[in-house]
Design a protein that fits this description.
This protein is α/β, with parallel strands linked by helices. The protein has 19 helices and 14 strands. The N and C termini lie far apart (126 Å). GO terms for molecular function: ATP binding; ATP hydrolysis activity.
Length: 503
């Protein structure tokens, strides 16, 4: 009799869960059955927090989150969050909710996961932990890496206010900026140089370690506002599939706070500080120059590798040379105002035209020295994209207005300088003018600048290891300045002959 009862219990133990699982009531009873079953076993619990004791993000937590969201049992939970896809509007993503318990099976064993605040809890039978724990975690890593490779999702991180009660300073959203390196407004040769440099960096871990250097690289993007620096940064991040950490210096309370933010960044990331010159010149933050220098290449920078740092400035003239030295800034990329070549690229991309009867007129205006930023010209073309002719005429009017304003400003400056009887400017220009005794010295200075290579161009074989990406227009600009001063000198001579007056 006892054997018959025991057999009935065993059969019920095997068949009841399958029968009950076919109904909602059965689903509830099945969960209770499993709970009772687990009560007969001793368990080990493992916590996986989101941050470590140094407030750095725990990468295992991130991988576990990806893995759990991919499990079929995640969709069977009582509560599941639904989100639309980042790139496809009709794509729905399931994200597990907090305070839910759901099972997973691995190598014939059953484990349970629970989500608590900023923490995952793994429940595993004590007698099975030695057999499956290590291989189970390796399995999670592998699956998570495969998911990341398929998605190639880049995220944008911004530093929040310093609130001690909250874990972590970085808040993130998907980074879906459409820009690429190819859509940038700099010369195509420079774009290829940047791509090659980034690709070489990605393959250089062993090389950097052999040199005893931290595996990181830094870029300076400089030029007037509206020349496409921010969009180019987005293109660089997408090219490398690196997350972007956008540092808001105004929310940093001091040098130590800046270091902690750097510690909380992850590998394969691009750390961006825009308008660095404004913070350095105006001293508008609590961060000192020493703190910024240590952030760029101090001992704290060795706490993380496989990082790219990008800084943007409007001009390098007022920046302390120690900020720009090799090691802190490896690559300089100049973003100039629009010239005729850039204008044609904009017309092709914005208006779909490669040639137009108004192009010669536009080129002639550019040759007089008129210029606008690519953003200004691009906005004109976007507003008038229905009519390329109207768009080009509007660009011409805007360039003429800009040119008239520029020449008027130069004339007022010329008149002021004539009244003062001196020429203000760089010390080198003053010495050259005084030595030559006439404005013809500018031509000599221009030729020496070109001959000695003062108009910097790309040079990867430089001994310093830096290649500067700039447009070599210095000689042309000096010649234009010479022509302007020459014409002013002739007007002055005619006035002196007629009445002995002064400009």
């Amino acid at each position: 009799m006892f054997l018959i009862l025991l057999l009935a219990v065993v059969v019920g133990f095997l068949l009841v869960p399958r029968i009950l699982s076919r109904t909602s009531i059965g689903h509830f009873l099945q969960n209770r059955w499993r709970f009772l079953e687990e009560c007969f076993h001793a368990h080990q619990f493992y916590k996986i927090p989101k941050f470590n004791q140094y407030m750095q993000e725990n990468q295992l937590h991130h991988k576990v989150l990806l893995y759990l969201n991919s499990l079929p049992s995640a969709g069977d939970s009582d509560f599941v969050n639904l989100f639309s896809g980042n790139n496809k509007a009709n794509e729905i993503t399931l994200v597990i909710n907090a305070d839910q318990v759901f099972p997973d099976s691995f190598l014939g064993s059953r484990v349970y996961w629970k989500i608590e605040k900023d923490c995952f809890v793994l429940k595993i039978r004590r007698k099975e932990k030695r057999r499956i724990l290590s291989t189970y975690l390796q399995h999670i890593h592998k699956v998570a890496d495969e998911i990341e490779q398929k998605s190639n999702e880049v995220r944008l991180y911004i530093n929040a206010e310093n609130e001690p009660e909250k874990n972590g300073r970085w808040k993130s959203i998907p980074f879906t900026h459409p820009a690429t390196i190819d859509t940038g407004m700099i010369d195509s040769e420079f774009k290829n140089k940047v791509k090659s440099d980034l690709e070489l960096f990605l393959k250089s871990k062993q090389y950097y370690h052999r040199l005893g250097r931290v595996w990181k690289r830094s870029y300076l993007l400089y030029g007037p506002s509206g020349t496409g620096k921010s969009s180019f940064i987005a293109g660089m991040a997408k090219f490398m599939c690196y997350d972007v950490y956008d540092v808001d210096m105004s929310k940093i309370t001091g040098d130590s706070d800046l270091k902690l933010l750097l510690l909380q960044t992850t590998s394969k990331s691009m750390i961006v500080v825009e308008d660095l010159d404004r913070y350095l010149v105006e001293k508008s933050t609590a961060v000192s120059l020493s703190g910024i220098l240590n952030f760029m290449d101090g001992i704290i920078s060795c706490c993380g590798e496989e990082r790219v740092m990008v800084f943007t400035v409007s001009s390098k003239d007022q920046i302390d040379p120690t900020v720009l030295r090799p090691g802190r800034i490896d690559v300089h990329i100049h973003f100039p105002l629009c010239d005729f070549s850039s204008f044609k690229n904009l017309a092709n991309s914005h208006l779909g035209i490669k040639e137009h009867k108004l192009f010669p007129q536009v080129e002639e205006i550019f040759q007089t020295g008129a210029s606008l930023s690519p953003a200004e010209i691009g906005e004109i073309m976007i507003s008038n994209r229905g009519s390329p002719t109207r768009a080009l005429k509007t660009v011409i009017n805007a360039l003429q207005t800009n040119n008239d304003s520029r020449l008027s400003g130069k004339f007022r400056l010329s008149h002021k300088l004539s009244q003062n009887g001196s020429v203000t400017g760089s010390a080198g220009a003053q010495r050259n003018l005084s030595h030559s005794g006439s404005i013809d010295g500018l031509v000599d200075m221009s030729s020496r600048l070109v001959a000695t290579g003062s108009t910097r161009t790309v040079d990867e074989s430089s001994e310093t290891g830096i290649f500067c990406m700039e447009n070599g227009h210095t000689g042309k600009e000096l010649k234009k300045l010479y022509g302007l001063l020459k014409s002013r000198s002739r007007r002055k001579e005619s006035v002196d002959l007629d009445g002995g007056g002064k400009l």
